[in-house]
Write a structure and sequence with these properties.
alpha+beta, Arc Repressor Mutant, subunit A, 2 domains, three-stranded antiparallel beta sheet, 6 helices, disordered C terminus, WH_DNA-bd_sf
Length: 196
């Protein structure tokens, strides 16, 4: 939660964010203690550097040209008070909440930029996000209920019965989809190998 709030405030040129604890607590809806704990975890995992440019600054690591990045929706996730209402139901007491955030970030990272959808199997979600297969459905439910992800069904490329799924992040390039990119036929696109 804290990583998302910092990423939203990071300068696009250098990945440096200037934000206060108060702004982070409002954005995430969690206490200052939990924000501090989150910052400790992010720093320990080398996802950010604390105070690289003085107080209330955070540097996203491995940021910039030559590094892999992901687009996250930002402004539409906030209300007028500066809070992200999507976190209203996150009480940091259930593993499914953390799993949901891991899956959300996995979808952001694996999103096909031409069709604006992440086509990824449960097995790939499990490997990429480090979540047990049996916990994925519950975490996806949290994302869906909170309006963060739209699930789309596609015909399977391998010809077997059933469907494969694509996951679209709400509020991220909403006009960019298969119908507007000339790829309305399901199963087309450079990322088809991801869900065979």
């Amino acid at each position: 939660m804290v990583l998302m709030a910092i990423a939203h405030r990071a300068d696009l040129a250098d990945g440096l964010a200037r934000t206060t604890y108060d702004e982070l607590t409002i954005a995430t809806g969690i206490s200052r203690t939990k924000v501090a704990d989150g910052l400790d975890v992010l720093a320990a995992r080398n996802l950010l550097v604390r105070e690289p440019d003085g107080r209330s600054t955070y540097q996203l690591t491995n940021y910039g040209e030559g590094h892999v990045w992901a687009a996250l929706p930002a402004k539409p996730l906030y209300d007028r008070t500066g809070a992200m209402p999507m976190f209203d139901d996150f009480h940091l007491r259930k593993a499914a909440e953390l799993d949901a955030l891991k899956i959300y970030l996995a979808f952001a990272a694996r999103r096909d930029t031409t069709q604006n959808v992440a086509r990824i199997t449960y097995e790939q979600i499990s490997d990429y996000a480090g979540i047990h297969l049996g916990k994925i459905k519950k975490a996806l439910g949290i994302l869906n209920i909170n309006g963060l992800v739209t699930v789309e069904s596609y015909e399977r490329m391998d010809g077997l019965p059933g469907a494969s799924h694509g996951y679209r992040l709400a509020h991220l390039f909403p006009r960019l989809h298969a119908g507007t990119t000339g790829r309305a036929t399901r199963g087309q696109g450079d990322d088809s190998r991801n869900y065979e």
